[in-house]
């Protein structure tokens, strides 16, 4: 995603066993003047905290007016269009298929000193398969 200039937020849960990627477009929409003024006035910059369900409101008036509709409106500002989501999904799946995502062996080897012969054998083993975890979901 970074190589394709696609902003995203990351939430890591369960001691690293679950990683959530939240592609988003808020900064781009903000730069283009496409964010609703009501949202801009709240001074909330939706990031991983808000996207994952914890909305931080900085002003009392925003807290007093907070509602489910407001939360949906805020999330809509950071959400990708369906077409853009499909493009981003393709980038992610391409990275996984091409092996740009580290295998478990490569991750373990990364913490071993470079002088260790085992490190070199694992580091250069690009034939190791890369699998998506059975629990991996891509949600539109």
From TrEMBL:
One of its GO terms (biological process) is glucose metabolic process. PANTHER family: GDP-D-GLUCOSE PHOSPHORYLASE 1. InterPro entries: GDPGP (IPR026506), GDPGP1_C (IPR058865). It is an enzyme of class 2 (transferase). It comes from Pinus taeda (Loblolly pine). Residues 1-97 form the GDPGP1-like C-terminal domain. Specific and highly efficient GDP-D-glucose phosphorylase regulating the levels of GDP-D-glucose in cells. It catalyses: GDP-alpha-D-glucose + phosphate = alpha-D-glucose 1-phosphate + GDP + H(+). GO terms for molecular function: GDP-D-glucose phosphorylase activity; guanyl-nucleotide exchange factor activity; hydrolase activity; nucleotide binding. It comes from the Eukaryota. This is GDP-D-glucose phosphorylase 1. One of its GO terms (cellular component) is cytoplasm. Its EC number is 2.7.7.78.
């Amino acid at each position: 995603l970074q190589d394709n200039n696609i902003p995203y937020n990351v939430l890591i849960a369960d001691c690293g066993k679950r990683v959530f990627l939240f592609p988003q477009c808020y900064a781009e929409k903000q730069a283009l003047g496409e964010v609703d003024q009501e949202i801009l006035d709240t001074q909330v910059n939706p990031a991983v905290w808000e996207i994952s369900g914890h909305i931080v409101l900085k002003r009392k008036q925003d807290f007093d007016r907070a509602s489910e509709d407001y939360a949906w409106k805020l999330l809509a500002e950071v959400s990708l269009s369906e077409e853009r989501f499909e493009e981003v999904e393709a980038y992610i799946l391409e990275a996984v298929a091409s092996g740009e995502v580290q295998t478990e062996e490569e991750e373990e080897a990364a913490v071993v000193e470079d002088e260790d012969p085992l490190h070199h054998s694992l580091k250069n083993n690009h034939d190791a398969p890369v699998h998506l975890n059975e629990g991996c979901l891509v949600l539109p």
